[in-house]
Amino acid sequence: MEPELLGEYLPVFARAAWLTLWVGLTGIVCAVVVGLACAVVQHFRVPFARQLVSAYIELSRNTPLVVQLFFLYFGLPKLGIVLSSATCAIVGLAFLGGSYMAEAIRSGLEAVDDGQSQSALALGLSRGLTLRHVVLPQAVALAMPAFTANIIFLIKETSVVSIVALPDLMYVAKDLIGTDYNTREALTLLVAFYLVILLPISLGAGKLEKKVRYAAFGS
Amino acid sequence: MPPSGLDVLFQGTNFLRLLGGLWVAARIALISMALSVLLGVPVGVLMTSRNRVIKAVTRVYLEFVRIMPQLVLLFVFYFYVTMILRVNLSGETSAIIIFTVWGTAELADLVRGAITSIPAHQYETGYALGLTPLQVQMHIVLPQSIRRLIPAAVNLVTRMIKTTSLVVLIGVVEVLKVAQQIIDFNRFTYPTASIWVYAVVFALYFITCYPISLLAKGLEKKWALSSQPSH
Q1: What ipTM did this prediction achieve?
Q2: Cα A177 from chain centre
Q3: Rounded CA gap, A118 and A78, in Å?
Q4: Which residue of A18, A112, A173, B195 is most buried, as measured by CB atoms within 10 A?
Q5: Nearest CA to B145 among B119, B166, B121?
Q6: Complete DSSP assignment for A171-194
Q7: Which residues contact B186 (CB under 8 A, 6 or more apart)?
Q8: pLDDT in the model for residue A66
Q9: Helix axes B14-47, B175-185, angle to 10 degrees
């Protein structure tokens, strides 16, 4: 291993790490929005939209991101829909992550016992207040483990966006292996950067779960 | 009607080749899953050990494998570990090894979870009724653990199949690669082939994974009802 090479490659990887993070976080935010919309539709059993949502969830959960991205990036242009690499990656992550987020949120909402909202209503709280002060705090806490697992899952999934020509960490590593044959240095940095990104998130998620666990033992 | 991109799939043996590619992906997933079950069960039992060293080692293994994207593990193994070991492994063999390393970690954690989810009072009740430790394991712990384990393990199969889509990046000719070849070969005769062919690949993955997902969901529902009558 040559230390000066590591130093030389560091800025390249740092730039790529920003891209990975940026694509990942934007994708996650979009996924949460999609997931929230789907969970609301399912929770309130909106007719027709509900069937659409469950079809989407099954489709998204049972296909790999790589295939989804290939379709978006190489297939859609034939219909005249040309998306940039970054847009493709974000749309892909939102499409994939939306269903996972929807399931997390829905399971959180469902896990709050009916008695809780009935009691709140019986105590004279309005529907809005019941949702805000009784159901949501518990649902969020119950959904938290699945939610943080999804965030880590989606950041890991960004590792495939290089197939739509986005210069992320994976892309840079592959590029350096191909051009300089410095496989060892490139892969060491690759692993190190993913650890630096994902380890704090994983540890933070564990802390956060403990903090909001009050709901699990509530009642 | 101008030639639709879908027709290209029915030219010659194209569709069969695509299915052949799917089989390559499925084969990798099935072999990896079988090996993961074989290795994951003992590792999972090991994880419930109170020995600190065993606990620490298995924990680091699980966390590392879980935190790294599978593609990174695949690259590190295919380009680097093989170099250190001075072995020449095909992409498919590398993929099976890495998916087994990953699947073993995931399955072991499921096994650990299933074992530790059985509350202590179940053991105590069993002993109080005069059952031997073996009888307690056979008639009380195992049946419940297995019911908790199997739906999650079936779900892992779909994750394994979906993860096989990564192997195209280390040069394995599977369904995506075959799709690419068909599209490239017919670029001039069927210029819009890509949307159709990729849609078919999308559908093929869905058709493969969806029944398995349904099975997992069905088992989960069935066993959740019978093992937790209080809910």
Answers
A1: 0.89
A2: 29
A3: 53
A4: A173
A5: B119
A6: HHHHHHHHHH--HHHHHHHHHHHH
A7: B8, B11, B193
A8: 95
A9: 160
Residue A179 makes CB contacts below 8 A (sequence gap 6+) with: none
Residue with tokens 């069905």: B218
CA B111/CA B42 separation, integer angstroms: 9
How many structural domains is chain B composed of?
A: 1
| Residue A191 touches partner B, C-beta closer than 8 Å | yes
Q: Read off the amino acid at residue B52.
A: R
C-alpha distance across the termini of chain A, in Å = 57
Pick left, alpha or beta for residue B157 (phi over 0 → left; psi -120 to 50 → alpha; otherwise beta).
alpha
**A70 chain-B contacts, CB cut-off 8 A:** 176, 179, 198, 201
Q: Which domains does chain A have, with CATH numbers?
A: 3-214 (1.10.3720.10)
Reported as a single tens digit per residue, the pLDDT across A16-47 is 999 999 999 999 999 999 999 999 899 888 89
CB contact residues (below 8 A), chain B span 158-197, against chain A: 158, 162-166, 168-169, 176, 179, 183, 191-192, 194-196
Residues of chain B with pLDDT under 70: 1-4, 225-231
Helix (H) or strand (E) holding A204, with range, is helix A183-211
Size of interface A-B (CB pairs under 8 A): 107
H helix or E strand, kind and range, residue A110: helix A85-111
Find the CATH number of the domain harbouring B208. Answer: 1.10.3720.10
Domain with B173, as residue range(s), is 5-227
